[in-house]
Amino acid sequence: MPDPQKVLAARVQAALGQAFGEPDADPAIRPSQFADFQANVALALAKKLGRKPRDIAAELVARLDVADVCDKVEISGPGFVNLTLRNEWIAGRAQLMHGDERLSVEPTASPQTTVVEYSSPNVAKEMHVGHLRTTIVGDAIARVLEFLGHEVIRDNHLGDWGTQYGMLIEHLLDVGEDSDEGMLLETDPNSFYQAARGRYDTDEEFAGRARRRLVSLQAGDAETMRHWQRLVDLSKVYLHTVYGRLGVTLTDDDIRGESFYNDMLGATADELAADGIATISDGALCVFPPGFTGRDGGPLPVIIRKSDGGYNYSTSDLATVRYRVDKLTVDRMIYVVGSQQSLHFQMLFAVARMAGWLPDRVRAEHAKIGNVLGSDGKIFRTRSGKSIKLTELLDEAVERAGAAFDEVPHDEPFDEVARREVVEAVGIGAVKYADLSVARDSEYVFDFDRMISFRGNTGPYLQYATARIRSIFRKGGVAPEDALGPIAIDHDAERALAVHLLGFGSALETAGETAEPHRLCAYLFDLASAYTTFYENCPVLKAPDDDTRASRLALCALTLRTLSKGLELLGVTTPERM
Q1: Closest C-alpha among 114, 149, 113, 116 to residue 367
Q2: Over its length of 578 residues, how does the chain's per-residue pLDDT go in tens digits?
Q3: Is this model's pTM higher than 0.85 or not?
């Protein structure tokens, strides 16, 4: 790992062990405005050791072995240790990174089996803007963890079971499979769903038939299952289209819908009851995990089996936990689901741990996803108040990207096919990056003008940065893979760029550990900004001599590879030209 922050942390920890017998103390290495990095550990140790921070810092520096890494080590203020890196060390580490196909990001020494549950739309309903974040954030998390060496199990927990399917099937039988209304399942599933829902809510006779149809579905009635399977298959065709356009890595093999766990629900409820964890309350089988109370101060239940004998999401989710732990033997479970489900997951994990189904060795976390808002600060919807279809949103993004693209000067003309490919990549990339660059648990305002912009922390800006680097190599008649250096550091802008490049692996590790892709976005934006400063201050093709030209071309190539790999792990494509 070439990251100077990690290298310095290891050296400081070794010195802490020698000087104070504190090898496990956090060295607190942070970037500094007075040097490259700063070790702040002396302040934290002062109270514990009963000594002045500057005295601790002085003894630490006396034991610190960093002559090969640092050009200067100084104590400042109340006890900060300022660390300035050697240019030769920076250049050497950058050269190693450039020569490694994985950019010096070593696979983790402790790989984990991690299930990432994301997207999870409902069968027979089109995806809307609310599904956007869970889909692309989850995909980025899966990509990053996989690159870091973990075994990732993608899980599309499709909503494909429950009352609504009795309703949909019964409505289909009423209108006829081959009727114009029946064909809406293929052309406009939302309209078909809304028609069925309207009847269910207003026609008690229809609602009764729908509930009976659900019983037939749960019992495995052949004809009912045939209709249900058609609904699922039609939804898969639709998902292929959306996921393909978004560049999402989910496949049919990753689908484990609610129906997958149907046969496990009875045993799940029975075992909770037999162990005395679940009890009957108002006719329903419930668990009351400690620490959860309602508005009236009374204990809050997790309903396992309803009073009518039916099961619900909690039952299904508990069966899912058991399956993942017992059958998939996972070490970590990441649920990329909306923030409004926070209480549900807190109580779910509590019940699973009470039952012994979620052992301490397994890390279960709800990767909360905040809402997408409109300019009015409310949930992003159409003017009529309806949810915005994801396909329509993507169409508009590409259309707007095309308009923005035509206003940007291009070195070479684009034919219509090439323009269409680039505009599609820019439009989709803009939407994805705008979402990923915001902390996933935060709400954000959906603003086409901001996300399509070629300036600021946007997808088009980063895509354009990679295209601009490629144009340098085209003009110079050199392939990026042939720009081998050697790298040398002679200018402050070269130095700043190289130091930032060395932090790529740590940025990935942080994004994977926290399941927060916005941290990788922030790194990539800062890298592109550092490259812009380098480009403006350090002539590449017109460098003063051949050695400097070779070094700067190598820095360009390394930046291109790092930006491209980072954007790839976010699921954002990088056009060759823009």
Answers
A1: 116
A2: 578 999 999 999 999 999 898 878 899 999 998 899 999 999 989 888 989 999 999 999 999 999 999 999 999 999 999 999 999 999 999 999 999 999 999 999 999 999 999 999 988 888 888 788 999 999 999 999 999 999 999 999 998 888 889 999 999 999 998 898 888 887 788 888 889 999 999 999 999 999 899 888 878 899 999 999 988 888 888 888 899 999 999 999 999 999 999 899 999 999 999 999 999 999 999 999 999 998 888 999 999 998 888 888 899 999 999 999 999 999 999 999 999 999 999 999 999 999 999 999 999 999 999 988 887 778 776 555 566 788 888 999 999 999 988 888 887 889 899 999 999 999 999 999 999 999 999 988 888 888 898 889 999 999 999 999 999 999 999 999 999 999 999 999 999 999 999 999 999 999 999 999 999 999 999 999 999 999 999 999 999 999 999 999 999 999 999 999 999 999 999 999 98
A3: yes
DSSP 457: S
The per-residue DSSP string of 252-318 comes to GGGB--GGGGGGGHHHHHHHHHHTTSSEEETTEEEE--TT-B-TTSSBPPEEEE-TTS-B-HHHHHH
* Token pair of 441 as six digits: 């648990």
Q: Give ∠ CA 296-298-302 in degrees, rounded to 5.
A: 115
Distances (CA, A) of 275 to 181, 268, 269, 354, 533: 50, 11, 10, 10, 65
Side chain identity at residue 51, one-letter code: R
Q: Hey, what are 517's tokens?
A: 């892709």
CA gap 525, 419 in Å, rounded: 25
CA dist., res. 216 & res. 225, Å (int):
9
